[in-house]
Write a structure and sequence with these properties.
The protein has about 325 residues and is mainly α. Helices cover about 80% and strands about 0% of the residues. It folds into 2 domains: about 210 residues, no CATH class; about 110 residues, no CATH class. The radius of gyration is 23 Å and the shape is elongated.
């Protein structure tokens, strides 16, 4: 009785929750707010319930053997459903850095695996400790890891191409599905499956955190100087003689005059906010909590208006001049919401 009521739930639920907490702790810039993580965990839990209903319906319709369904179809439905949460977060600019993509992806898988393991705790009360070790350390971490990979791959594609496109999430989805399917193929060798997750997942997450730290460092150092030089150039009256000024002049033949003027206003405003955002993150790294003042909030509202006025095509044209991607900047703003 003690094993089923206490030991089994601890083994089944603690590892994935503990690793999620560790990921939040390792985020030195505190890019992800706890309330958003909890919301995503809740979303992952809801997705698990939806996946259960959908998989049951597909099993009934297709008449697949359960083993084959688990190996080939369940990974597709479950990874796509979990991935939908990440797509919404990227589309709404709630994810701006690789590290928070990994955290939100893992949080989605955490919510999913908690519900799944609670279901097994209720329906298979006599399962052995080995079963719960495999489910708690293997299956649960697998769910978090595959969705983290999906999130990181999708965000990387989005940032590389400077635009949101569902096609950019396809490679990550394929990888997540293949890894999930491979894990389920090892059902006859549960210890091997568990050890593969424990061995590979920490390495993948470490690489993501290292790359994210490198990316943040690139624009917290040189990016700070580049933004300051850009702002000084815009305000000096010598902007039209600079390389960037000449580039903007070439846009006059492609866009109407008022739009070019809005692009210059957008560039000045964006650079100011980029400098403030970098300062905020440096303060956060050193343990200081910094909020947005009313003036900065007003600037964000003005930038929203300019983005709508300029349009997507012009924003793509100005993107090479920005030293902080839009998703990164909006992520910093989201910290204060």
């Amino acid at each position: 009785m003690l094993f089923h009521d206490v030991v089994a739930p601890v083994i089944a639920l603690t590892p994935v929750a503990g690793l999620l907490i560790a990921l939040l702790y390792l985020d030195s810039y505190k890019l992800v707010r706890l309330r958003w993580v909890l919301a995503v965990v809740t979303g992952g839990a809801a997705i698990a319930l939806l996946a259960y209903v959908l998989n049951a319906a597909l099993l009934d319709v297709l008449q697949f053997k359960r083993a084959l369904f688990a190996q080939y179809l369940a990974p597709v439905t479950e990874e796509l459903l979990k991935g939908a949460i990440i797509v919404v977060l990227v589309r709404s600019r709630r994810i701006g850095f690789l590290v928070d993509a990994a955290v939100f992806g893992f949080a989605t898988g955490t919510g999913f695996s908690i519900v799944e393991n609670l279901y097994y705790l209720a329906t298979v009360p006599d399962a052995s400790i080995g079963t719960w070790l495999v489910r708690g350390i293997g299956t649960a971490l697998m769910h978090g890891g595959t969705t983290a990979i999906f999130a990181v791959a999708g965000l990387a594609w989005t940032q590389r191409h400077a635009r949101f496109d569902l096609f950019g999430f396809v490679p990550g989805a394929v990888i997540a599905i293949v890894l999930h399917s491979g894990f389920n193929h090892l059902a006859s060798w549960p210890r091997v499956a568990m050890l593969s997750v424990v061995t590979v997942l920490p390495v993948v997450l470490q690489i993501v955190f290292d790359k994210s730290d490198d990316a943040v460092g690139k624009w917290l150092g040189p990016g700070f100087d580049a933004d300051a030089e850009m702002l000084d150039l815009i305000n000096s009256g010598r902007f039209s003689d600079s390389a960037i000024g000449r580039y903007l002049a070439t846009l006059k033949g492609k866009f109407k005059g008022p739009i070019v003027a809005d692009i210059l206003c957008y560039l000045r405003l964006y650079t100011e906010l980029s400098l403030r955002a970098k300062g905020m993150l440096l303060m956060r790294e050193n343990g200081f909590e910094v909020g947005l003042d009313d003036e900065t909030r007003a600037k964000f509202e003005e930038m929203r208006y300019l983005e709508r006025s300029i349009g997507r095509t012009a924003l793509l044209a100005v993107h090479p001049m920005l030293h902080m991607s839009p998703s990164e900047l909006w992520q910093v703003y989201a910290l204060e919401e």
